[in-house]
Amino acid sequence: MTPDNSWHALSLKDVCSILSVDASRGLTDAEVQLRLAEHGPNLLPEARQRPLWRVIASQFASPLIYILFVAAVISAAMGHWTDAGVILLVVFINAGIGTFQEGRAERSVASLRRLSSLKSRVFRDGHERIIEARDLVPGDVLVLAAGDALGADARLIHGAALEISEAALTGESLPVAKQTEPLGEDTPLADRTNMVYSATHVTAGRARAVVTSTGQATEVGKIASLTLQAKDPKTPLEQRLAQFGKWLTAGAVVLFLAILITGYLRGLPFGDIFMVAVSQMVSVVPEGLQVAMTIGLAVGMQRMVRRRALVRRLAAVETLGSTTIICTDKTGTLTRNEMTVTVAVLPDGRRVQITGSGYNPEGGLLAGDQPVAEDDSAVRSLTEAVALCNDASLVPPDARDSRWRALGDPTEAALLVFAVKHGVDIHALQRRWQRHAEIPFDSDSKLMVTQHRCGNAIRTVIKGAPEKVLALCGDSAGQQRFLSATEALAQEALRVLAVAEATHESVDLQQGYDALGGRIQLLGLVGQMDPPREEVKAAVEKCLAAGIRPVMVTGDHQITGLAIARMLGIAREGDMAVDGAKLDMMPEQDLRASLDRISVFARVHPAQKLRIVEALQAQGQVVAMTGDGVNDAPALATADVGVAMGMTGTEVAKSAAKMVITDDNFASIVHAVEEGRLVRRNLGKVVLFLFATSLDEVLVLMLALLLGYPLPLAAVQILWINIVTEGTVTVNLIMEGLEGDEMKCRPPKRNEALIGRESLNRLLVMVGTSVAVVFGFFHWRLSTGVSHPLVQTETFTLMAVCQWFNVLNCRSATKSALTFDVFRNWWLVGGLLLGNLLHFLVVYTEPMNRLFRTVPIPLADFFLIGALGSLVLWAEEIRKRLLSMRLPHSASA
Ligand code: ATP
Fold first, then answer.
1. Which backbone phi and psi does 2 adopt, to 5 degrees?
2. Which of 277, 242, 251 shows the shortest CA–CA distance to 67?
């Protein structure tokens, strides 16, 4: 079916007939199915998911396991077969836990990847649809607009001023202009201006194109090196934790030597002391940390998805938690993006009110209290103009939705509603005045022009931001009057557009806006209301309480922006708004000096967004910035957390951003920040717990060795505590839910240590108590003549009980473990139950007794051990109580 890669040389008719598609209707669903079966899904050969055996094998590739294997071999060589067996058993239990947990993390990351996959707009069966790019087939008719990313190679069949950035394919940074005419057979790839390629994106214009190849048959598909999906680099926190892990491992080796030397000096049997030294070394290696980190980030991502934020880069999960400034768009993010034209101002100064709301075209026009006559020529010219310079359409109520809906840009749909309310028959008008040229709207120029023909007559309509339209009008007195009228409308928080028509018929749009200079006449201003989203006000308050400052960055008028920012609490008393023109004039120092007081940047063009991000970052702020257009990509990529809009955002913005908000709502960004803080906090809990357990064991053992006691724990028991007691609960700490006060404290610094001053205090309390309890108990039992195996078993059990209570302690830095709902974290409850069950097996079953050198503990002793272990909990409870008396609202993990 493919004519050997020469689609560019064929006529449009031939392209369509070879691909058997009617370009005006697209493929039918049945044809798509057949083609999908023939060509397969439109996918590049991704880095394949790791097979299970690799996941299992990777569990054995760690320093901890190497140490244990060496220890097993040495034990076996010394004839200690049971010890060797236990070590191997523990290694396999560890691998089992690790495989299960990594599988969980990998599955969730993979499912998130699928969620953030590329979408394409196609024309199928006579209707426009948005589909997953993986479902594209040869013959599909693509509908392209600025900001779309191409998911397949295609031949252009129709286009208006289409420009494509092919940087990803050719390295050429300037966009390439495209056209639809056939080219010579041997035109090189880079010059095939009638073709568009997968992995490139549309920077301007509109077009239709027929897909010629998909998947591996595309040009990118042929370049193997590009096709492997890049792995996420390590996040800053991951890097720091890895570094921390290395230090601990080095510490573990020192400890190993210290124990061997002390044991040797004390004359203890080498076999015993060697095993103890190995077990201790293992206790210090923080093997749970890496897994906890991976799972923490993956779980954080999943929780964010539930709250409508899709994180595309793992690093963003933790950066979100440190965000100090959220720069947000206005339209659609803070407001509902449901426009209603409520006011129009005419050249003769009349102010017309428009009744009705939403996209329901019922309502009327009133000037003063009088209805405006349908034949009022000034109003008719204005309403016809806005209906012509318009790409939107209105959808009447149907079975799916009982309300009128807007298809396309809501600003334009609202203008259609306005025209209908004045009695304009839109379809008849658009049929009579066929459009033959246009300059599409873009947020840099903030203007849109269309040219229409009816017989020999030509009409050129322009609409856009008032100061831009007015600048093209000749009449300066009129300009001044309209600028004041614009400001008056903007004070009412209305979004204002000016509408004008060319007075001269022979305007050539090929020359751009210059062709219009001095040749247009204003038809009026329209003011649109776009109500704020209900939940935003509360979200803004939450931000402020959390030490995060929201800043509005809008393309709209400064006065409109400020009015809405005041309504929502974003602009405080004394805050100012700066517009794009002023920003351009501002030297960098002045900008930085006044950043604290600017809460609205208005009429900014996308390049200025980048400057704002960089200025804020230079002040040490961690910046989240929203964006939707193709030109927002640089700012999104530079911001610490670029946030793209899922509904209105272009594919290009989405791929540049680190996070996508699926409902375009500001409140969802704030929720994501909250979840980001939770991930950091939970990781802090894990580090604290791992640290506390290791210190407990090391200190008890060293005390015994140095003070001349026999070994308080057998080596295999130390191993058990490390791998099983700890392994069953540590990672589950990461599943802790929100405590509710995450957004009541200041953002943690980007590089803030996970173990801060407060954690050190807690460590002191927890470790101090458990070492005193365990060592005191051990001393007491020995001194009352209890047999050594029973003393060891009881000390071993007490140590395990202390760790179980410690896990409960670590759940919250401030809240009591007794009142704080324990059953909320089922993972932890499950882990504790499993840990308990396994421990009982070790203490009460005969084969395990032999392996772990334990003996059954009398039941009465068991209660005593439980009560003593709980002292660790009580000590921490007292600290929390004292803290809450001192600082009623303290909150940090
Ligand atoms: P935000 O950046 O906060 O989402 P915005 O949506 O108002 O704000 P833009 O979409 O860039 O920003 O619009 C900027 C201005 O351009 C608007 O205030 C309006 O005057 C004008 N404008 C918006 N949409 C159109 C359009 N479809 N045709 C012509 N002019 C438009």
1. -85, 130
2. 277
Does the pLDDT value for residue 123 go beyond 70? yes
**Prediction pTM value:** 0.80
Expressed in angstroms, the distance from the first to the final Cα of the chain is 63
pLDDT range class, residue 456, cuts 50, 70, 90: confident
Q: Of 83, 140, 148, 329, which is the active-site residue?
A: 329
User: How many angstroms separate the alpha carbon of residue 603 from the centre of ligand 1?
Assistant: 9
Nearest CA to ligand 1 atom 7: 556
Cα 175 to its chain centre, rounded Å, is 28
Residues with CB under 6 A from ligand 1: 329-331, 409, 411-412, 441, 443, 446, 448, 463-465, 495, 497, 554-557
For ligand 1, pick from 327, 335, 411 the residue to mutate: most ligand atoms within 8 Å of CB. Answer: 411
Q: Which amino acid is at 658?
A: K
Q: Whose CA is nearest to atom 4 of ligand 1?
A: 331
Q: Where in the chain is the domain with CATH 3.40.50.1000?
A: 320-335+534-665
Kindly report the protein residue whose alpha carbon is nearest to atom 16 of ligand 1: 446
How far CA 755 is from CA of 550, 648, 692, 761, 806, in Å, comes to 29, 41, 12, 10, 16
DSSP per position, 779-801: HHHHHTT--HHHHHHHHHHHHHH
CA of 518 to the centre of ligand 1 (A): 23
Task: State the closest ligand 1 atom to the C-alpha of 412, by its place in the atom list counted from 1.
Answer: 27
Distance CA 260, CA 252 (A): 12
340-529 has which fold? Answer: Calcium-transporting ATPase, cytoplasmic domain N (3.40.1110)
Rounded to an integer, the average pLDDT of 3-23 is 85
Considering the chain, tell me which residue range(s) the CATH 3.40.1110.10 domain(s) occupy: 340-529
Nearest to 441 by CA among 479, 418, 468, 417: 468
Packing angle of the helix pair 410-421, 377-388 (nearest 10 deg): 150
CATH of domain 320-335+534-665: 3.40.50.1000
Give, using CA atoms, the residue closest to atom 22 of ligand 1.
464
- Answer yes or no: 696 catalytic: no
160 Cα–ligand 1 center, Å: 21
CATH assignment of 4-39+137-213, given 2.60.200.20, 3.40.50.150, 2.70.150.10, 3.40.50.620? 2.70.150.10
What residue ranges of the chain are covered by domains with CATH 2.70.150.10?
4-39+137-213
122-126, 239-243, 461-465, 522-526: range with lowest mean pLDDT = 239-243
**Separation CA 737–CA 812 (nearest Å):** 10
For the CA of 603, the closest atom of ligand 1 is: 14
